[in-house]
Amino acid sequence: MRSTYGAALQVTMRNTAAAYGYTLSMSATLSLLTEVSGKPDSGRLFLFALGGLLAFALLEAVLTALRSSATDAPEQAFPYAGALNIVSVAGALGMAILITHFVRSSLAWFLAPLSTTAIYMLVVAAQVTAVAAGQQRIRAARHGGPGRR
Questions:
Q1: Do 28 and 88 form a contact (C-beta atoms < 8 A)?
Q2: For residue 46, what are the CA distances in angstroms to 6, 31, 69, 104?
Q3: The whole model's pTM is what?
Q4: Contacts of 115 (CB under 8 A, 6+ apart)
Q5: How far apart are CA 99 and CA 50, in angstroms?
Q6: Which string of b and e fits 122-142 if b means at least 16 CB within 10 Å?
Q7: Residue 142 needs a FRET pair 20 to 30 A away by CA distance; which of 35, 52, 82, 119 works?
């Protein structure tokens, strides 16, 4: 029973790590904007949602334009990279803090979630890539190096 529960917890954490970190980043960004700029009206909330959505759309457009036929998704790397969410959340929130304190207009309600989303996604991707590369080196070392069996 213990091993089944542990496996279930591991799958749950792997499947929710990115969404959890992103949720923390965006909720902190919204809280920050509210603290600095006051309670948002409907227009500011719309700008907030639009900023986050536009970042997703722009990242997807770039990925679509750059996509090659050989895509190696490092899915097994994410449980370890998910533990590094502190780096991606801190980076995203750091940019939101800068924008919120230097853009003193409604434009901050658009730019802060846009930058939070973009930075979080880009840093998580870098973390997953780094962890996957590390795992690949470990596997290669265990099997006598690249090209050996």
A1: no
A2: 41, 15, 37, 17
A3: 0.83
A4: 55, 92, 95, 96, 99
A5: 16
A6: ebbbebbeebbeeeeeeeeee
A7: 82
